[in-house]
TrEMBL record:
Keywords, alphabetical: Calcium, Glycoprotein, Golgi apparatus, Metal-binding, Repeat, Signal
Chain positions covered by the region annotation Disordered: 1-21
One GO cellular component term: Golgi lumen
Protein name per the record: 45 kDa calcium-binding protein
Pfam family of the protein (one): EF-hand_5
Xref: PANTHER family: 45 KDA CALCIUM-BINDING PROTEIN, RETICULOCALBIN
Predominant subcellular localization, coarse grouping: Golgi
Species of provenance: Cyprinus carpio (Common carp)
A GO term for molecular function: calcium ion binding
Domain EF-hand, first and last residues per copy: 127-162, 166-201, 267-297
Family that this chain belongs to: Belongs to the CREC family.
Protein backbone atom coordinates (compact mmCIF):
# COMPACT_ATOMS: atom_id res chain seq x y z
CA UNK A 1 0.00 0.00 0.00
CA UNK A 2 1.14 3.57 -0.67
CA UNK A 3 2.46 5.55 2.29
CA UNK A 4 1.91 9.20 3.10
CA UNK A 5 4.72 11.70 3.53
CA UNK A 6 3.18 14.82 5.03
CA UNK A 7 6.20 17.10 4.60
CA UNK A 8 6.26 16.93 0.82
CA UNK A 9 4.14 20.04 0.26
CA UNK A 10 6.91 22.45 1.20
CA UNK A 11 9.32 20.58 -1.03
CA UNK A 12 6.90 20.77 -3.94
CA UNK A 13 6.46 24.50 -3.32
CA UNK A 14 10.20 25.07 -3.56
CA UNK A 15 10.48 22.80 -6.57
CA UNK A 16 7.65 24.58 -8.38
CA UNK A 17 9.19 28.01 -7.82
CA UNK A 18 12.65 26.87 -8.77
CA UNK A 19 11.84 24.64 -11.72
CA UNK A 20 8.56 26.00 -13.04
CA UNK A 21 9.99 26.10 -16.56
CA UNK A 22 11.98 22.88 -16.32
CA UNK A 23 10.83 19.84 -18.32
CA UNK A 24 12.09 17.70 -15.48
CA UNK A 25 9.56 19.18 -13.07
CA UNK A 26 6.69 18.12 -15.30
CA UNK A 27 7.75 14.51 -14.91
CA UNK A 28 8.56 14.50 -11.21
CA UNK A 29 6.01 16.84 -9.67
CA UNK A 30 3.37 14.13 -9.32
CA UNK A 31 5.63 12.00 -7.18
CA UNK A 32 5.70 14.88 -4.71
CA UNK A 33 2.02 15.84 -5.09
CA UNK A 34 0.99 12.38 -3.92
CA UNK A 35 2.63 12.96 -0.52
CA UNK A 36 0.84 16.21 0.29
CA UNK A 37 -2.61 15.23 1.49
CA UNK A 38 -2.01 15.31 5.26
CA UNK A 39 -0.18 18.60 5.37
CA UNK A 40 -2.52 20.46 3.06
CA UNK A 41 -5.41 19.88 5.45
CA UNK A 42 -3.61 21.65 8.28
CA UNK A 43 -1.91 24.55 6.48
CA UNK A 44 -3.73 27.26 4.56
CA UNK A 45 -2.61 28.10 1.05
CA UNK A 46 -1.48 31.56 0.05
CA UNK A 47 -4.23 33.23 -1.89
CA UNK A 48 -4.03 36.34 -4.01
CA UNK A 49 -5.59 39.47 -2.59
CA UNK A 50 -7.22 40.55 -5.82
CA UNK A 51 -10.95 41.09 -5.95
CA UNK A 52 -11.33 38.45 -8.66
CA UNK A 53 -9.61 35.80 -6.58
CA UNK A 54 -11.62 36.62 -3.46
CA UNK A 55 -14.87 36.52 -5.42
CA UNK A 56 -14.09 33.15 -6.94
CA UNK A 57 -12.95 31.70 -3.63
CA UNK A 58 -16.00 32.89 -1.70
CA UNK A 59 -18.54 32.07 -4.38
CA UNK A 60 -17.23 28.72 -5.52
CA UNK A 61 -14.96 27.56 -2.67
CA UNK A 62 -11.95 27.58 -4.97
CA UNK A 63 -8.48 27.23 -3.49
CA UNK A 64 -5.11 28.23 -4.87
CA UNK A 65 -4.06 25.72 -7.47
CA UNK A 66 -0.53 24.78 -8.47
CA UNK A 67 0.92 25.87 -11.77
CA UNK A 68 -0.01 23.36 -14.44
CA UNK A 69 3.03 21.18 -14.84
CA UNK A 70 1.30 19.28 -17.63
CA UNK A 71 1.84 22.23 -19.94
CA UNK A 72 5.49 21.25 -20.08
CA UNK A 73 5.41 18.46 -22.62
CA UNK A 74 9.14 17.65 -22.73
CA UNK A 75 9.27 18.29 -26.46
CA UNK A 76 12.94 19.12 -26.06
CA UNK A 77 14.07 17.30 -22.90
CA UNK A 78 17.34 18.33 -21.33
CA UNK A 79 18.16 14.77 -20.34
CA UNK A 80 16.78 11.93 -22.44
CA UNK A 81 17.77 9.29 -19.91
CA UNK A 82 16.22 11.25 -17.05
CA UNK A 83 12.94 11.53 -18.91
CA UNK A 84 13.03 7.85 -19.88
CA UNK A 85 13.24 6.47 -16.36
CA UNK A 86 10.95 8.89 -14.50
CA UNK A 87 7.18 8.38 -14.60
CA UNK A 88 5.76 11.22 -16.71
CA UNK A 89 3.09 13.51 -15.33
CA UNK A 90 1.50 13.75 -18.77
CA UNK A 91 0.11 10.62 -20.39
CA UNK A 92 -0.97 10.86 -24.03
CA UNK A 93 -4.56 9.79 -24.55
CA UNK A 94 -5.49 10.01 -20.84
CA UNK A 95 -8.02 12.66 -19.85
CA UNK A 96 -6.34 13.77 -16.66
CA UNK A 97 -2.73 14.41 -15.68
CA UNK A 98 -1.28 12.57 -12.73
CA UNK A 99 -1.16 15.86 -10.80
CA UNK A 100 -4.94 16.25 -11.08
CA UNK A 101 -5.06 18.77 -13.93
CA UNK A 102 -7.25 18.14 -16.95
CA UNK A 103 -5.34 17.16 -20.07
CA UNK A 104 -5.71 20.28 -22.22
CA UNK A 105 -4.58 18.53 -25.38
CA UNK A 106 -6.61 15.35 -25.00
CA UNK A 107 -8.91 15.80 -27.99
CA UNK A 108 -5.93 16.57 -30.23
CA UNK A 109 -4.07 13.51 -28.96
CA UNK A 110 -6.95 11.13 -29.66
CA UNK A 111 -7.65 12.71 -33.04
CA UNK A 112 -4.08 12.84 -34.35
CA UNK A 113 -2.40 9.96 -32.54
CA UNK A 114 1.28 9.67 -33.40
CA UNK A 115 0.82 12.30 -36.13
CA UNK A 116 0.63 15.09 -33.54
CA UNK A 117 4.18 16.24 -34.21
CA UNK A 118 3.29 16.92 -37.84
CA UNK A 119 0.92 19.71 -36.81
CA UNK A 120 3.28 22.05 -35.03
CA UNK A 121 2.25 25.69 -35.03
CA UNK A 122 5.10 26.82 -37.26
CA UNK A 123 4.47 24.21 -39.95
CA UNK A 124 3.29 25.17 -43.43
CA UNK A 125 -0.53 25.70 -43.47
CA UNK A 126 -1.08 24.17 -46.91
CA UNK A 127 0.72 20.99 -45.92
CA UNK A 128 -1.32 20.80 -42.72
CA UNK A 129 -4.56 21.26 -44.66
CA UNK A 130 -3.61 18.45 -46.99
CA UNK A 131 -2.75 16.20 -44.04
CA UNK A 132 -6.03 17.03 -42.33
CA UNK A 133 -7.95 16.14 -45.49
CA UNK A 134 -6.13 12.80 -45.56
CA UNK A 135 -7.14 12.14 -41.97
CA UNK A 136 -10.76 13.02 -42.77
CA UNK A 137 -10.86 10.45 -45.57
CA UNK A 138 -9.51 7.78 -43.21
CA UNK A 139 -12.08 8.54 -40.51
CA UNK A 140 -14.90 8.54 -43.08
CA UNK A 141 -15.13 4.77 -43.40
CA UNK A 142 -18.32 4.60 -45.45
CA UNK A 143 -17.10 7.37 -47.80
CA UNK A 144 -20.26 9.48 -47.53
CA UNK A 145 -18.15 12.63 -47.07
CA UNK A 146 -19.21 13.06 -43.46
CA UNK A 147 -17.98 11.69 -40.15
CA UNK A 148 -20.49 10.17 -37.73
CA UNK A 149 -20.04 9.71 -33.98
CA UNK A 150 -19.48 5.98 -34.48
CA UNK A 151 -16.79 6.61 -37.09
CA UNK A 152 -15.10 9.13 -34.80
CA UNK A 153 -15.32 6.69 -31.89
CA UNK A 154 -13.57 4.01 -33.90
CA UNK A 155 -10.88 6.50 -34.90
CA UNK A 156 -10.34 7.65 -31.30
CA UNK A 157 -9.84 4.07 -30.14
CA UNK A 158 -7.38 3.49 -32.98
CA UNK A 159 -5.36 6.61 -32.14
CA UNK A 160 -5.37 5.73 -28.44
CA UNK A 161 -3.93 2.34 -29.32
CA UNK A 162 -1.18 4.15 -31.23
CA UNK A 163 -0.25 6.03 -28.06
CA UNK A 164 -0.23 2.73 -26.18
CA UNK A 165 2.11 1.12 -28.69
CA UNK A 166 4.40 4.15 -28.64
CA UNK A 167 4.63 3.87 -24.85
CA UNK A 168 5.50 0.17 -25.15
CA UNK A 169 8.22 1.00 -27.65
CA UNK A 170 9.70 3.72 -25.46
CA UNK A 171 9.49 1.46 -22.42
CA UNK A 172 11.76 -1.10 -24.04
CA UNK A 173 14.52 1.51 -24.22
CA UNK A 174 13.79 2.74 -20.71
CA UNK A 175 13.95 -0.79 -19.34
CA UNK A 176 17.32 -1.39 -20.97
CA UNK A 177 18.59 1.80 -19.34
CA UNK A 178 17.77 0.56 -15.83
CA UNK A 179 18.60 -3.14 -16.34
CA UNK A 180 22.40 -2.99 -16.66
CA UNK A 181 22.97 -6.71 -16.14
CA UNK A 182 20.35 -7.61 -18.75
CA UNK A 183 18.69 -10.31 -16.66
CA UNK A 184 15.19 -9.17 -17.58
CA UNK A 185 14.38 -7.93 -14.10
CA UNK A 186 15.10 -4.67 -12.30
CA UNK A 187 15.58 -4.41 -8.57
CA UNK A 188 14.63 -1.31 -6.63
CA UNK A 189 18.32 -0.74 -5.92
CA UNK A 190 19.18 -0.87 -9.62
CA UNK A 191 16.52 1.69 -10.36
CA UNK A 192 17.58 3.86 -7.43
CA UNK A 193 21.15 3.98 -8.73
CA UNK A 194 20.02 5.09 -12.18
CA UNK A 195 17.62 7.65 -10.74
CA UNK A 196 20.28 9.25 -8.54
CA UNK A 197 22.77 9.19 -11.41
CA UNK A 198 20.24 11.15 -13.47
CA UNK A 199 20.22 13.71 -10.65
CA UNK A 200 23.96 14.25 -10.87
CA UNK A 201 25.20 11.73 -8.33
CA UNK A 202 28.21 9.58 -9.15
CA UNK A 203 26.72 6.29 -10.34
CA UNK A 204 29.63 4.09 -9.22
CA UNK A 205 29.76 5.67 -5.78
CA UNK A 206 26.01 5.33 -5.28
CA UNK A 207 26.06 1.69 -6.41
CA UNK A 208 28.93 0.91 -4.05
CA UNK A 209 27.22 2.55 -1.07
CA UNK A 210 23.96 0.71 -1.73
CA UNK A 211 25.84 -2.57 -2.10
CA UNK A 212 27.56 -2.01 1.25
CA UNK A 213 24.36 -0.76 2.94
CA UNK A 214 25.95 2.61 3.55
CA UNK A 215 23.89 5.74 4.11
CA UNK A 216 23.15 7.83 1.03
CA UNK A 217 23.38 11.54 1.70
CA UNK A 218 20.68 13.16 -0.40
CA UNK A 219 18.67 16.32 0.12
CA UNK A 220 15.18 16.12 1.61
CA UNK A 221 13.44 16.79 -1.69
CA UNK A 222 15.26 13.96 -3.46
CA UNK A 223 14.61 11.62 -0.53
CA UNK A 224 10.88 12.30 -0.63
CA UNK A 225 10.79 11.73 -4.39
CA UNK A 226 12.58 8.42 -3.84
CA UNK A 227 10.08 7.37 -1.19
CA UNK A 228 7.16 8.19 -3.46
CA UNK A 229 8.75 6.31 -6.35
CA UNK A 230 9.34 3.35 -4.07
CA UNK A 231 5.65 3.26 -3.12
CA UNK A 232 4.76 3.29 -6.78
CA UNK A 233 7.40 0.66 -7.54
CA UNK A 234 5.88 -1.86 -5.14
CA UNK A 235 2.39 -1.11 -6.43
CA UNK A 236 3.59 -2.10 -9.91
CA UNK A 237 5.05 -5.36 -8.59
CA UNK A 238 2.36 -7.86 -9.60
CA UNK A 239 1.53 -10.82 -7.31
CA UNK A 240 3.31 -12.83 -6.22
CA UNK A 241 5.40 -9.85 -5.16
CA UNK A 242 9.12 -10.47 -5.58
CA UNK A 243 10.36 -6.85 -5.33
CA UNK A 244 11.54 -7.13 -8.94
CA UNK A 245 9.96 -5.53 -11.98
CA UNK A 246 10.02 -7.20 -15.36
CA UNK A 247 9.54 -5.21 -18.56
CA UNK A 248 5.75 -5.39 -18.42
CA UNK A 249 5.64 -4.32 -14.77
CA UNK A 250 8.08 -1.51 -15.48
CA UNK A 251 5.70 -0.31 -18.20
CA UNK A 252 2.94 -0.11 -15.57
CA UNK A 253 5.32 1.76 -13.28
CA UNK A 254 5.94 4.42 -15.94
CA UNK A 255 2.51 4.29 -17.59
CA UNK A 256 -0.28 3.31 -15.16
CA UNK A 257 -2.85 3.53 -17.97
CA UNK A 258 -1.51 0.17 -19.19
CA UNK A 259 -2.58 -1.65 -16.03
CA UNK A 260 -6.01 -1.68 -14.42
CA UNK A 261 -4.43 -2.03 -11.00
CA UNK A 262 -2.03 0.87 -11.50
CA UNK A 263 -4.78 2.99 -13.05
CA UNK A 264 -6.80 2.40 -9.88
CA UNK A 265 -3.77 3.36 -7.79
CA UNK A 266 -3.36 6.56 -9.82
CA UNK A 267 -7.03 7.42 -9.26
CA UNK A 268 -6.70 6.85 -5.51
CA UNK A 269 -3.73 9.21 -5.37
CA UNK A 270 -5.59 11.93 -7.27
CA UNK A 271 -8.66 11.56 -5.05
CA UNK A 272 -6.51 11.64 -1.93
CA UNK A 273 -4.91 14.91 -2.98
CA UNK A 274 -8.25 16.57 -3.79
CA UNK A 275 -10.45 15.02 -1.10
CA UNK A 276 -10.67 17.64 1.65
CA UNK A 277 -13.13 15.92 3.99
CA UNK A 278 -11.58 12.46 3.75
CA UNK A 279 -14.70 10.63 2.61
CA UNK A 280 -12.97 9.03 -0.38
CA UNK A 281 -15.18 10.90 -2.85
CA UNK A 282 -15.04 14.24 -4.63
CA UNK A 283 -17.63 16.98 -4.42
CA UNK A 284 -17.78 19.71 -7.04
CA UNK A 285 -16.13 22.17 -4.63
CA UNK A 286 -13.26 19.74 -4.07
CA UNK A 287 -12.83 19.03 -7.76
CA UNK A 288 -12.60 22.67 -8.81
CA UNK A 289 -9.88 23.21 -6.23
CA UNK A 290 -6.42 21.68 -5.98
CA UNK A 291 -4.09 21.09 -3.01
CA UNK A 292 -3.34 24.28 -1.14
CA UNK A 293 0.06 25.77 -0.36
CA UNK A 294 1.78 24.43 -3.45
CA UNK A 295 2.73 27.73 -5.03
CA UNK A 296 3.63 31.03 -3.40
CA UNK A 297 3.01 34.49 -4.84
CA UNK A 298 0.40 33.31 -7.32
CA UNK A 299 -0.89 35.90 -9.74
CA UNK A 300 -4.59 36.71 -9.67
CA UNK A 301 -5.08 35.41 -13.18
CA UNK A 302 -4.04 31.94 -11.98
CA UNK A 303 -7.46 31.66 -10.38
CA UNK A 304 -9.75 32.53 -13.23
CA UNK A 305 -13.30 31.94 -14.30
CA UNK A 306 -12.32 29.94 -17.37
CA UNK A 307 -10.41 27.36 -15.36
CA UNK A 308 -13.22 26.97 -12.83
CA UNK A 309 -15.85 26.79 -15.58
CA UNK A 310 -13.89 24.10 -17.44
CA UNK A 311 -13.54 21.81 -14.43
CA UNK A 312 -17.15 22.40 -13.39
CA UNK A 313 -18.37 21.45 -16.87
CA UNK A 314 -16.19 18.31 -16.96
CA UNK A 315 -17.35 17.28 -13.50
CA UNK A 316 -21.07 17.74 -14.16
CA UNK A 317 -21.31 16.60 -17.77
CA UNK A 318 -18.69 13.86 -18.06
CA UNK A 319 -17.13 12.48 -14.88
CA UNK A 320 -20.22 12.38 -12.64
CA UNK A 321 -21.94 9.71 -14.69
CA UNK A 322 -25.00 9.31 -12.43
CA UNK A 323 -25.34 13.09 -11.91
CA UNK A 324 -25.57 12.95 -8.11
CA UNK A 325 -22.99 15.76 -7.75
CA UNK A 326 -20.48 13.35 -6.21
CA UNK A 327 -17.64 11.65 -8.06
CA UNK A 328 -16.64 8.26 -6.69
CA UNK A 329 -13.35 6.50 -7.30
CA UNK A 330 -15.18 4.13 -9.62
CA UNK A 331 -16.53 7.00 -11.71
CA UNK A 332 -13.12 8.66 -11.89
CA UNK A 333 -11.48 5.36 -12.83
CA UNK A 334 -13.91 4.88 -15.71
CA UNK A 335 -13.28 8.47 -16.80
CA UNK A 336 -9.51 7.96 -16.72
CA UNK A 337 -9.53 4.64 -18.59
CA UNK A 338 -8.26 5.45 -22.11
CA UNK A 339 -9.63 2.19 -23.54
CA UNK A 340 -13.19 2.79 -22.34
CA UNK A 341 -15.31 2.65 -25.51
CA UNK A 342 -18.22 4.50 -23.91
CA UNK A 343 -15.87 7.38 -23.07
CA UNK A 344 -14.58 7.33 -26.63
CA UNK A 345 -18.13 7.65 -27.97
CA UNK A 346 -18.85 10.57 -25.63
CA UNK A 347 -15.62 12.25 -26.70
CA UNK A 348 -16.55 11.71 -30.35
CA UNK A 349 -19.92 13.38 -29.81
CA UNK A 350 -18.31 16.30 -28.00
CA UNK A 351 -15.73 16.79 -30.74
CA UNK A 352 -18.42 16.76 -33.42
CA UNK A 353 -20.58 19.22 -31.46
CA UNK A 354 -17.76 21.78 -31.40
CA UNK A 355 -17.61 22.08 -35.20
CA UNK A 356 -21.08 20.92 -36.26
CA UNK A 357 -22.32 24.22 -37.67
CA UNK A 358 -25.20 22.74 -39.65
CA UNK A 359 -26.36 20.74 -36.60
CA UNK A 360 -26.69 17.42 -38.44
CA UNK A 361 -24.67 15.54 -35.79
CA UNK A 362 -21.95 14.73 -38.33
CA UNK A 363 -18.76 16.47 -39.42
CA UNK A 364 -18.23 17.61 -42.98
CA UNK A 365 -14.79 18.36 -44.36
CA UNK A 366 -15.47 22.10 -44.47
CA UNK A 367 -16.34 22.06 -40.77
CA UNK A 368 -13.27 20.14 -39.68
CA UNK A 369 -11.02 22.44 -41.71
CA UNK A 370 -12.67 25.55 -40.29
CA UNK A 371 -12.11 24.27 -36.75
CA UNK A 372 -8.65 22.89 -37.47
CA UNK A 373 -7.14 24.66 -34.47
CA UNK A 374 -9.41 22.68 -32.14
CA UNK A 375 -8.60 19.35 -33.77
CA UNK A 376 -4.89 19.85 -34.48
CA UNK A 377 -3.68 22.89 -32.56
CA UNK A 378 -2.80 24.51 -35.88
CA UNK A 379 -4.93 27.24 -37.45
CA UNK A 380 -5.38 27.03 -41.21
CA UNK A 381 -5.89 30.12 -43.35
CA UNK A 382 -8.37 30.04 -46.24
CA UNK A 383 -9.59 26.70 -44.93
CA UNK A 384 -12.31 26.27 -47.55
CA UNK A 385 -10.24 27.27 -50.56
CA UNK A 386 -10.34 24.54 -53.19
CA UNK A 387 -11.50 22.09 -50.55
CA UNK A 388 -13.73 20.12 -52.89
CA UNK A 389 -11.05 19.90 -55.56
CA UNK A 390 -8.48 18.63 -53.08
CA UNK A 391 -10.94 16.19 -51.55
Amino acid sequence: MGRSHPNASAQLCRMTKTHAHSPQSARSVWTLCKTMSNRRRSQPGRLCASTLAVFVILALNVQARPANMSALKDKHPNSKEDNEILPPDHLNGVKMEMDGHLNKGFHQEVFLGKEMEEFEEDSEPRRNRKKLIEIFTKVDINKDRSVSAKEMQRWIMEKTEEHFQEAVKENKLSFLAVDPDGDGHVTWDEYRVKFLASKGFNEKEVAEKIKNNEELKVDQETQEVLESLKDRWFQADNPPADQLLNEEEFLSFLHPEHSRGMLRYMVKEIVRDLDQDGDGKLSLAEFISLPMGTVENQQAQDIDDDWVRERKKEFEEVIDSNHDMIVTMEELEEYMDPMNEYNALNEAKQMIAVADENQNHNLELEEILKYSEYFTGSKLMDYARNVHEEF
